[in-house]
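Possible regression after last week's pipeline update?

I re-ran a chain I had predicted before the update to compare outputs. Posting the input and the new output here so someone can diff against the archived version. Not blocking, just want to make sure nothing changed silently.
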Amino acid sequence: MIAREVVRTIAGPTAGRRHVRGHAIPVGVSVRHVHLSRSDCDALFGPGYELTMRHPVTQPGQFVCRETVTLVGPKGEIPRVAIINPLRKETQVELAKTDAIVLGVNPPLRESGKLAGTPGLTLRGPAGSVAIDHGVILAHRHVHMHPDDAGRLGVGDGQRIQVKVDGERETTFGDVLVRVSPQYALDMHVDTDEANAAGLTNDSVATFAGTE
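New output (post-update):
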């Protein structure tokens, strides 16, 4: 069940994303997942192992792998955690606060890639285990944008915006980080705790509500 849920929420094929207009922003619910370094991938799956694609994600060139890992913390473990390819310079583990409580870790809220001063944990794979001394974060909610989207909305890379979601749990998210790159497709990423609180799914569409 956990594995199926992970794939459903962060691994939907890019062809399934809807085209939006105006101030609309598609929502992507980001379940706990891992970005691996080359050395940690080797330790977990064997030297030179090449991860295989299960499904693409909304960001071009990235995909969820068929392979998974188990996260092990001081108080518990979570099996069948998704891996997102491509490999990175450093291993990064992205959790929701609920996941962190299960594992017994206390990661800070951080932008992706800003890993200094973060806690570690153990990752277990079929070929071995890796104990990382840092790299575990609660990912700051953010919106990926192509420069065309940023120009249309009048925002820039690194800016903070407000995003409104309608429905039974109508919410306006503040302090949403804008990330702009020609390699990005428009998509707002929130974790499962945020999504559940606001009643969001991968079919949800939010609305740009201004800058901060």
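Follow-up from reviewer: compared with the archived run. The chain has five helices and 15 strands. Marking as no regression found.
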